[in-house]
Amino acid sequence: MPERAVEPITEAITEAITEAITEAIAEAIALSGIGKEFPLRRGHAVRALDGFDLTVEHGEFVAILGPSGCGKSTVLRLVAGLEAPTEGEVRVEGRGPAELIREHRLGVAFQEHALLPWASARANVALPFKVAGRQVDRARVDALLHLVGLEGFADARPRQLSGGMRQRVAIARALALNPDVLLLDEPFGALDAVTRRRMNLELARIWMAQRITTLLVTHDVDEAVLLADRVVVMTGRPGRVRHVQRVDLPRPRGTEVTREPAFHALVDQLTGLLDEAEPAGTAA
Ligand code: ADP
Ligand code: MG
């Protein structure tokens, strides 16, 4: 009976189309009405986020700035599915983060880059393929090493690399499986100012080549303005969105941009907002 054979296929196709439409019309990342409480001992709790709302469009680069302890990393961990919200909803590509993680469509690079110390840069970048149980795409691994400017260091172990180079390996690794969304939590926080600046320019260049939806947490205002399409300033804990600033500086953005009056005006404005969120003497 041909009709019986056709029916499940039609259903599968309908499902696939529905899924494709859901993803196409959904924001890349949508956090709505997010509250997050961490239980402490003896029935106490710390409220990290309260009424946090944010949407990120497909291919957009959004930076989150805020005083220390305001819940920035918590926001990223919620999007990465490493924490569940106490209230509200997190959607990535129109779905729950768990589904995207299962499909290895989220790329994550956090400050503690956690490279395998005994493995070469190349093997570290190839690691996500192994974790996902996929055959290593050697051409892609080499292309990523080239993208982050480490083609000459493919065989070096992490301890043979500088801090900036190790972060570049971590970013290449986060990009390995061609994720839909890239999450960066203070990826350059441990670097000296000069290296950090160089890495910022490098990331701006990499992002221009990939245009991947990116959510970056940082406490460096220059970094946020140089890299982002929009900068979100959070309040102190419990964190919520205090201000969203569009950055209309032209791309590609190189060192010249950092000398523009418009760049400095934005940095000054955002620094002022941060100072208000974190009155002198109360910083953690
Ligand atoms: P930020 O990244 O902005 O510095 P976090 O998101 O790391 O801030 O933390 C926000 C608040 O939540 C802080 O007060 C922190 O101590 C608390 N917090 C974060 N994670 C946990 C956890 N797993 N257990 C208890 N408290 C936590
Ligand atoms: Mg943090």
N/C terminus separation: 71 Å
Largest sheet: 6 strands, mixed
Range of strand content: 15-25%
Report low-confidence residues grouped into runs of 5 or more: none
The geometry reads as globular
Gyration radius, in Å: 20 Å
How many strand elements?
9
Major sheet: arrangement of strands? 5-6-7-3-8-9
CATH topology of the domain at 27-102 and 217-284: Rossmann fold
Q: Could you name the CATH homologous superfamily of the domain at 27-102 and 217-284?
A: P-loop containing nucleotide triphosphate hydrolases
Mean pLDDT: 90
Query: What ligands can be seen in this structure?
Result: adenosine-5'-diphosphate, magnesium ion
Order of helices and strands: HEEEHEHEHHHEHEHEEH
Proportion of helical residues: 40-55%
The secondary structure category is alpha/beta
Under the CATH scheme, which architecture of the domain at 27-102 and 217-284 would be assigned? 3-Layer(aba) Sandwich
For the record, what CATH class of the domain at 27-102 and 217-284 applies?
A: Alpha Beta
How many helix segments?
9
Keywords:
284 residues; binds magnesium ion; alpha/beta; six-stranded mixed sheet; three-stranded antiparallel sheet; globular; Rossmann fold; binds adenosine-5'-diphosphate
Task: Describe the overall structure.
- The chain is of the alpha/beta class and about 280 residues long.
- The protein has a domain at about 25-100 and about 215-284: P-loop containing nucleotide triphosphate hydrolases (Rossmann fold), CATH 3.40.50.
- It is built from nine helices and nine strands.
- The strands form two sheets. The protein has a six-stranded mixed β-sheet, sandwiched between helices. Strands 2-1-4 form a three-stranded antiparallel β-sheet.
- Strand 8 (about 230-235) and strand 9 (about 240-245) form a beta hairpin.
- Helix 4 (about 120-130) packs across helix 5, helix 5 (about 140-145) packs across helix 6 (about 165-175) and helix 8 (about 220-225) packs across helix 9 (about 260-275).
- The longest helix has 24 residues, at about 1-25.
- It is globular.
- It binds adenosine-5'-diphosphate and magnesium ion.
